[in-house]
Amino acid sequence: MPRMTMIEAIRDAHVVAMEADPDVIVMGEDVGYFGGVFRCTAGLQKQFGVARCFDTPISELGIVGTGVGMAAYGLKPVIEIQFADYMYPGYDQLVSEAARLRYRSAGEFTCPMVVRMPTGGGIFGAQTHSQSPEALFTHVAGLKTVVPSTPADAKGLLLAAIADPDPVIFLEPKRLYNGPYDGHHDRPSVPWSKHPDGEVEAGHYTIPLGKARIVREGTDATLVTYGTMVHVALAAVEEAGIDVEVIDLRTLLPLDLETITASVCKTGRCVVLHEATLTSGYGAELAALIQQDCFYSLEAPILRVAGWDTPYPHAQEWDYFPGPARVRRALETVMKD
Amino acid sequence: MTEERAPSLHVPAPSIRPGDDPDFSHVSIPRAGEVDRPDPATPPEEMRDLAFSIIRVLNRKGEAVGPWASGLDSETLLQGLRDMMKLRIYDARMMTAQRQGKTSFYMQHLGEEAISCAFQRALRKGDMNFPTYRQAGLLIASGYPLVKMMNQVYSNDGDPVRGRQLPVFYSSKEHGFFSISGNLATQYPQAVGWAMAAAIKGDKRLAAAWIGDGSTAESDFHGALVFASTYKPPVILNIVNNQWAISTFQGIARGGAGTFAARGHGFGLPALRVDGNDYLAVHAAATWATERARADLGPTIIEFVTYRAGGHSTSDDPSAYRPKEEGTAWPLGDPILRLKTHLIALGVWSEERHTQAEAEIKAEVVAAQKEAEAIGTLHSGRRPTPRDMFEDVFAEMPPHLIRQRHEVGY
């Protein structure tokens, strides 16, 4: 099976989708001739022509707003917001327009659009290149939110997102573009070519939205996470020497609650982990849902490990980033009760 | 050397307020027929003057004069008159229905009927309008059933959008009427995007964007113009300048720009300024812009100069911020009266026939209203169910919504 980085897998998903469907078009800042600042769209303009992959003015509201119009027309725009941090000028078009178009027109107009954006930190990007705004999307009725953690998942989920009849927010953990990252910033990075999850099937396949993946089976506790933190979680579990079940959500909305609650009801202990800020983060939603469905199986309070409630700092990146040490401490705490 | 001075904040304000005599002497209005009609293929930089004048066709005597007089046949003009009359009578009935408590809210078109009614007649089937809340004439002129409009206003069981939207936020793909958001200006970049999609597919259909004078201040307007300017898709960018954004006069949004149409010049777009109360001028300008769009010559900006003779909505009382008589003093007159005068001058219409038509249209509107009310109103009769509240959030209902719907008992 071919090995790919997450960037190559995302690019491959574009190629597969654009070859199969002439209505799939790609636009965004620097995505055309240059192929994107992270190279996720490299070669698409050459292969499919300027009318199907083109550069846009620096106007996120313009990109998302015209995308809504294209989707309503019947195209399938796959648009790139250069960093999730830049999304806010386009947020109104997502929240008030893309998300509600099917609802407010009773299905007469729809918005089958994918909005890709690199998310998360770990790259010394500070406050404007490191944010994880997923909770701002999961809070909106009418948006689906996807966060892959491996190249294979990125391709299959992106192809599923493009095929989806509704708007999908596709958050790409930029720290995982070139290799998995376990949070040990002082150790050499591992490329996807040396990691089993770097194997990506050729051609078309999809991974259904709304289905989580049990990355590691375990009996003592459950660690619910997604994106970059999947790899941090695995490292922390190995280091803690506890038999933890690790769940990669893959899709935050719709949520595969069944897989989560089956695991937590089995293990009786749960840690929720994300890179985004703690307060009103997606972890709060997870903790609330889990305690509601697993209350009588819980042996300990559900703990959340998340980014601190500060803007994402520059020099203090590794103090901010919820690395394996913090995850391990949380696991040890839930095991004590 | 210029003398230094501490800065002072300039806050534009209308010169006339309640208690004053209406005065529109500052509105410069050229005589009908005075403005040139360039070939639609003329480069934008050669027709910049069109953004600073007002294209007018009907003169005081009701004659159609000048290069923009398009020679619409009298059958079409009579239909246009009926469209405008229907819209006005429909508005009056719905305003009353709101006062009677049959719905929560309503927005009328009084004085602005010509713009949407005439514009629609310049479009073809398949073209798509991205309207605001004051372009229902687009629906009326395209033959959309009145009873469906009323069902929407009443949010009853016949409401095509299942009770989810405020009154007047209609949607009809078949009639080229994009779902109204209710957020201002958001539809502008969407229209540009729809037209870009048409251009990508080599499809000759076009999009028409609509916005009011006030919401041209939104960044959506400016973003849309950037994209329109860059990709040159087949889109007509309409600005309805009705002088008032709720209580705020147009000078607040316009700022230092000479006219709203002139905003287009910075984007290299051709811009027209048109008498919005002149059915023939609106139709002629719209036709000119559609010719440009269908010849792949790109977008056109049109500012329709008009006056919002009624309140912003049923929740508004304009007498609090402008003289009550201002509407009657508006120098561009009433669109229905002006077309009626023209048709009488042509010899194809008369006062008697007008009175008769009014009665016929009123009977038609009343009959539709009875039909709609037999289904229900906001507070009585058959209404959409709580089940409808959960449908169409997504194509397929996800588990969490099914769970919530069950909680409500559906």
UniProtKB/TrEMBL annotation, chain A:
Keyword entries, A-Z: Oxidoreductase
Entry-linked Gene3D superfamilies: 3.40.50.920, 3.40.50.970
The keyword Nucleus belongs to this UniProt entry's keyword annotation: no
Enzyme's top EC category: oxidoreductase
InterPro entries, alphabetized: THDP-binding, Transketo_C/PFOR_II, Transketolase-like_Pyr-bd, Transketolase_C
Known cofactor(s): thiamine diphosphate
Taxonomic superkingdom: Bacteria
Keyword Oxidoreductase: yes
Enzyme Commission number(s) of this protein: 1.2.4.4
Protein name: 3-methyl-2-oxobutanoate dehydrogenase (2-methylpropanoyl-transferring)
Source species of the chain: Arenibacterium halophilum
TrEMBL record, chain B:
Region Disordered: start-end pairs: 1-44
Catalytic activity: N(6)-[(R)-lipoyl]-L-lysyl-[protein] + 3-methyl-2-oxobutanoate + H(+) = N(6)-[(R)-S(8)-2-methylpropanoyldihydrolipoyl]-L-lysyl-[protein] + CO2
Keyword Oxidoreductase set for record: yes
Composition bias, Basic and acidic residues: 33-44
Keyword Acetylation: no
Keywords of the record: Oxidoreductase, Thiamine pyrophosphate
UniProt EC number: 1.2.4.4
Pfam families: E1_dh, OxoDH_E1alpha_N
Cofactor(s) of this protein: thiamine diphosphate
EC top class named in words: oxidoreductase
SUPFAM superfamilies: Thiamin diphosphate-binding fold (THDP-binding) (SSF52518)
Domain 2-oxoisovalerate dehydrogenase E1 alpha subunit N-terminal intervals: 6-45
Superkingdom of origin: Bacteria
Ranges where the Dehydrogenase E1 component domain occurs: 84-377
Described function: The branched-chain alpha-keto dehydrogenase complex catalyzes the overall conversion of alpha-keto acids to acyl-CoA and CO(2). It contains multiple copies of three enzymatic components: branched-chain alpha-keto acid decarboxylase (E1), lipoamide acyltransferase (E2) and lipoamide dehydrogenase (E3).
Family (UniProt): Belongs to the BCKDHA family.
Name of the molecule in the record: 2-oxoisovalerate dehydrogenase subunit alpha
